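Appendix B. Chain record.
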Amino acid sequence: MLDLFSMTLQNLRRRRLRTLLTVAGIAVGTVLITVVSCLGDTGKAIFGAELKSMGLDGISVSSATDNALDEETLKAIRSLGTVAAAMPLTVQFSAANVGTFDGDIMACGIDAGADQVISLTERYGRLLSRGDVAGVRRVCVIDESLAEAAYGRDNAVGKTLYLRTESGETAFEIVGVSKAGSSVLQNITGYMPSMVYFPYTTLRDLTGITAFDQIAVRAKDTETLDDTKAKITAALKRQDRVGAAYTVQDLAAQRDKLSGLMDIIRLVLQVISAISLLVAGISIMTIMLASVKERTVEIGIKKAIGATPQRIMTEFLTESVTLALIGSAVGAAVALAFCLAGGALFGVTVTLSFWTVFGVMGFAVLLGALFGVYPARMAAALPPVRALSEQ
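Structure tokens predicted for this chain:
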């Protein structure tokens, strides 16, 4: 076995340029498939976390009717046995000034205990309390991306934020800094504004809007989402409000559909990328056919001294598989380096299964073996007399 691999490496070294070009073709195909898989897995993980951080993993209750969502509606939903928590939510795009930052923000009016419904985690200070909501206090929680933009550091507790609304400019004390729920979207798109959380009662007092934009609901058990959704729908119907049109959405199901769509897109891109590996496989067949022709005399001598057709076929198959193995290994290493560099550049955690990497390498090696069969059979079937007559 060792002499077989030694002979294979010697044959490949003798044709270095051709070997390098073939290896490069396989490496390029491996890089494309691996990078596409990395982008798909990482993108799916990022946007899944982003949607969850914005509360899109539970149930959303909204209405196209003005003033349909109010305290009474909220109380009715919270009274349901399968509801773990329900939070009123008002959202509006506003302008704010804090430190050196002066621009657009997403003003979110929330209730105390919002972290039970949406993924809101304090980084510094505290989150909004029941006293803040009940007392209509001028306090807020900003995300760390806004703190960084305003002060060049992620701790801005105790600073003042000035919110501009139609009623004028209002000063708010920053009582907490949360982990940035949409920082990845900001880094990638440059579009999503920073999120600032206010007591919903305070925003209602400033804007004069008493209704909620929506009510975010988290069920006690994810397996009871359908049951919870049905009970919420029934509770809203019992309110018997004329003209009220409620929409109860299972956002977890919507997120799963989006995840499935991303899987389909990734699969299509992987198939397209795999075409490059097929082209590389054809190049392996080409180089091995040329090798058979160049080594005809060598094959004849080996057969004349007792080499079996199986031995000849094994030698050529080993060469084609080795080409594919080297090329796929180089491609996988380059792809991993590229993905890690991209993750560091955009500040995201790269998600890539090593099983995916090994799967791509295995696919490349399989192609190398398949495309090497025909040249290997030709070499094995070559009659010794004809081979020696080529000398």
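Further analysis of this model is presented in Appendix C.
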